[in-house]
Amino acid sequence: MIDLIGAPYDLSGPMLGSRIGPWAMRLLGFAQALRDLGLTVNDLGDAFPLSNEVPSRLAKRYAEGISACKALRKSVSTSLKKGNLPVVMGGDHSLAMGTVAGALDVYGDDLAVVWIDAHMDLNTPDTTPSGNMHGMPLAALALLEPGMHYGRAEKWSNALTEAWSEILADVVPRPGLRKSNVAWIGLRDVDEGEVRNQEGMPGSLVLTMQDIDRLTAPGAIKALADWTASTGAKKLWISFDVDALDPIFAPGTGTAVRGGLTYREGHLLAETLHEMGFGENAPFQIVGVDLVEVNPLHDNKGETARVAIEWASSLFGKTIMHTKAV
């Protein structure tokens, strides 16, 4: 059974609007699209209530983000313990601190994460150029401590430092996500500090758009398959930020970057992940999915929400010639 979980939070990025992304995906028929594949789908509603407030104080924003992640951790771990597959609709990408934390509660070192995104999201408080926590979730999940890695000399506010300490102590279960168990696909906007942080994560996989251009999509997928085997992990969490796609195809997102995956490259990746991650003979099992950064306030007639639904449908078995249930 697939559990749809809404995550209406968008205070960790510079642009509001992704908090209503879950509503857009629901209104455009996400649950029915999955049911049309023969899947059983249960919409659990939102993991926490939609807020009408936009706090001006950073400390308040960070506190609300931590609260949202704690709620998501509980929702995801509960879903997984029931034998279900949670699909979390965001919301900004900081929410993955909670979703992956919930999966770590259940699977521990047997979990690996595929991060499909234009951004690395590996900043710590001492490397972030913005202070926005949506660029920091993987660093939190890997339990990277500020000052342990080379980074910017500038320190961000005490509020961020305090929030980071709480995240590492209370949101992410120890020992955290294994540093080798992360693969990035589609990167094209990476901060210098993130590169330095990634150098401290041997065994992780980085596939930038330049790599995909050189390898072609099938070559990149083979590299992903080889990496997955090398980790030894049998459980895979897919975290998909719609800005991994070129903004021509997904205009409604908070941090669009030109030069992303084409529509067909994105779907080929989803279709291949389906073949690799579902079924009795699959080398690993896909156990959960994030769909984040759908921002209806900056979209074109719901196009990005539709693209997210279509991408997820491919991940769960939809093909051009026929459909396959998970």
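(ticket continues) Second input and output from the same batch:
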Amino acid sequence: MLAEKGLLHLLSQAGRHLGSLPGPLADAVATSVGWQVKQADVLAGVPDTDHWIVAGRSDVREDRIEVRRHWLRGTSSGRWALCLSFAAYQQSLDASLRVGTSVHADIHRYPGPALRSLVGARYALPVEPVSPPSHTIAEGCDEVGSMLVSEPWLDRLPVTIRARLARSGGVWALADATGSLPVLDAGTRQFDAGLAMLLAVSEGREVDLTVEWTPHGVVPLSIHLPERTVDIGPRANTSFVSAA
């Protein structure tokens, strides 16, 4: 609670001094404190055109809305992008981005250094199987740290690492020779099923994984194998959304 209040205080103070902040940072603060940006204005901006690898997917219930996060990584730029979709009861989530594929498309980014983006024009059918480059855990932590420097209030960030599933003191973790990252204990049957799938597919060996970093641990989203990608991220309850 103290950490969350600290971030709220940081944002509120930054919001009171928007005029003195650098342009991209001011845009990021304004968006984070609630300033609305029309999708039409975002799509009217200059696109970031690349072959975008759909590295991972995560569905999270927030109050009465189901939120789907697709994490995309540019093949040429190496930059991450976040595409969101929302569904209320019996509505549908976006299923056009399939994990493990690459799509040649325009990405239109929201103002500031934010990862949030919209997919614009698509120039070809998706290609598979495609995997993003992986890092050691130490390198992955450096990448997450670099993104947090731009927006320290972010609570979910993507990273692809090569690691194995380990257990220490009753806690699951992802580990390699450079360190370890605790796995977020979500306490749900679906989350446990994702860990079971990871353990079964990897057989305890190191594999390439796209995970979602949070301040409390990482959430495994996808396992990248040479011939395919296995989507193990949290998935929306089909009794709530009409198509997940």
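Agent notes: Helices lie at 2-15, 23-32, 39-43, 137-150, 189-202. The chain has three domains: 2-32, 39-122, 137-231. Closing as not reproducible unless the customer responds.
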